[in-house]
């Protein structure tokens, strides 16, 4: 990685797993890292690790299952830094099988849709002025190869729920958003791309789902950093990567009508409509 002294990066879900590895490596590359998480002690530990290695970091707490707290996080970012060169939407909730069943966010939305997708949608829109003012800047949405077409007649899965369906739908929503966002940002100097970082990394999320890990968080971090600071996507936007290779996502990601439906719904749910 090249040095990025004086630049700022926000990594959501940075107190554990692949997000923590990415945050530490960005700190080593010269970024001032805004470490997001829900737990003060774990956040302080990541900040300490970055600072002990000679980097700069700050912890910003927010529970992304609450849109009010997402708004608070955006405000905290704006008061902590006057520039933001990199936003990595990494925080997420795994499948956890079908136990304990369908859950809802603080705002009453299906939990995985709310945390994995809607929180990042709102946070990104709130931070776009800062990102544009800092251009060239990058947005990386950490998605998954596990993707399922969104059923717009039952987005919140009130009729037929499964943890796997909820997770896969939320992850595809991230990619639809990325493709849409790339078009919105054309000419701004800000690019947005998404990726599947690695399959079944050795993370808390994977272990809680009862799945045996197949890859390392370091592999996933390398893939995320490829989009965050690597030359592979210089000036290129709206792409989906499978680890380190450019790939095609579920066909719904390239459906203009589906993206328009998701955007309209998301703006309404996030309270961004006028």
User: Helical content, roughly?
Assistant: 40-55%
Rg measurement, Å: 17 Å
The total strand number stands at 8
Order of helices and strands: EHEHEHEHEHEHHEEH
Q: Please give the CATH class.
A: Alpha Beta
> In CATH terms, what is the architecture?
3-Layer(aba) Sandwich
The fourth-level CATH homologous superfamily is NAD(P)-binding Rossmann-like Domain
Distance between the termini: 42 Å
- What's the main sheet like? 8 strands, mixed
Unreliable sequence segments: none
Structure, briefly:
By secondary structure, the chain is of the alpha/beta class.
Note down, in words, how this protein is organized.
By secondary structure, this protein is of the alpha/beta class. The chain has a single domain (8-269), classed as 3-Layer(aba) Sandwich (Rossmann fold). It has helices at residues 17-28, 40-52, 67-80, 111-133, 163-184, 204-208, 217-228, 256-269, and strands spanning 8-11, 32-37, 56-61, 86-89, 137-142, 190-196, 240-242, 245-247. It has an eight-stranded mixed sheet with strand order 3-2-1-4-5-6-7-8, sandwiched between helices. Helix 2 links the parallel strand 2 (32-37) and strand 3 (56-61). Helix 1 (17-28) crosses helix 7, helix 4 runs parallel beside helix 5 (163-184) and helix 5 packs across helix 8 (256-269). The longest helix has 23 residues, at 111-133. The model has no long low-confidence stretch (mean pLDDT 93).
Provide tags for this entry.
274 residues; alpha/beta; Rossmann fold; eight-stranded mixed sheet; 42% helix
Layout of secondary structure:
Layout lengths: L7 E4 L5 H12 L3 E6 L2 H13 L3 E6 L5 H14 L5 E4 L21 H23 L3 E6 L20 H22 L5 E7 L7 H5 L8 H12 L11 E3 L2 E3 L8 H14 L5
Parallel strand pairs: 1-2, 1-4, 2-3, 4-5, 5-6, 6-7
Antiparallel strand pairs: 7-8
